[in-house]
Amino acid sequence: MFVLATMMSLASCRRDMVGQNPVVHVDADGFVSDNGEVALPYSDDETGEKLVDENGRKVIRLVKDSRLSFPEKVKERDSCFVVMSKKDYYLYVYEPQGNDTVMVARYDCCFASKKGDKVKEGDMRTPHCTMAHPFVINEIKDASTWEHDFGDGRGPIKAYGHYFHRLDTHGHKGIGIHGSTNNENSVPGRGSEGCIRLLDDDIVDFREHYAHQGMKVVIKAEEADDMPFEIHAMKKQNIVRKRHLDPAKALPGESQANVKSADVDN
Fold first, then answer.
1. Which pTM was predicted?
2. Would you call the peptide bond into 188 cis, given omega within 30 degrees of 0 as the criterion?
3. Burial of 122 by CB count in 10 Å (0-12 exposed, 13-18 middle, 19+ buried)?
4. 258 three-state secondary structure
C-alpha cells in the first residue's frame, strides 16, 4: 500500500521540461536514467558542501534552509511517511492523498560523518534504503535528559533534543532521528555516527505533527535524486529550496575519515 499509493501519483506528473541545462532524467527510485521523469534543476555551487574546520575537526557544512511545516494539510497522520535525501540534506514528510502525494513538512538534517551505506557498528555511516524496503519508526522516546560525552572537553552534555525516534533499519541497532542539542551547527551537514539530527525546534515539530510509531522512513543513497512523486509535489506546491545539489560536485565520501565519534547510539 505504501509503495502503491506513491506510485499512483506518478501518472499525473509525466511532462517534459525545457530550458534546463543539462537535462537529467531519474527513475522511480531517483537514480539517473536514460529516460523517465525530468529532474529539477540543480542549485548553484554556493549552496554545495563545504569542508570547514570546527573544533579541530574537518566537517561538512551547508547553507541553511527554512523549515516548512503544513500540519493543516494532513488528512490522516498515520499515512504520513518520511523521505530523507543524503545528497541534499533534507528530511521530507509526505502523505498520499488519493492519486496524489503531498509534501507536508521539510527540515534541514545532519547525517553521519562518512558517506555511504552503513555496514557495521562504528563505521560512522547512516544506513540507506529504498521505497520498496523502507525503515520504520518502532519507538519514540523522551530524550530531553539524555547526555553524551563527545570527548571534546565539554564533558557529558545534553545532545538529543526532546525526542529520539528509534528506527528499525533491517539489522543496525541504535539508529534514530533526534535533535541536536549543543550541536545545532551541524545541521545541515555531517557529524553523527549514524543517526539523523534535526534542529531541536524541528524535532519537536516533527513529533507533535507527523511522527508516529510504525511510520515508514526512506533514507536515499547519496547518489539518489528526487523521486518522480517528489518532483511532482514540489512543482505542484511551488516548493522553493536552497539546496538541490549536483552529485558530480559532491565532496568525496572519505573526506571526514579523521572525525572523532559524535553519537553514542550506534
1. 0.88
2. yes
3. exposed
4. coil
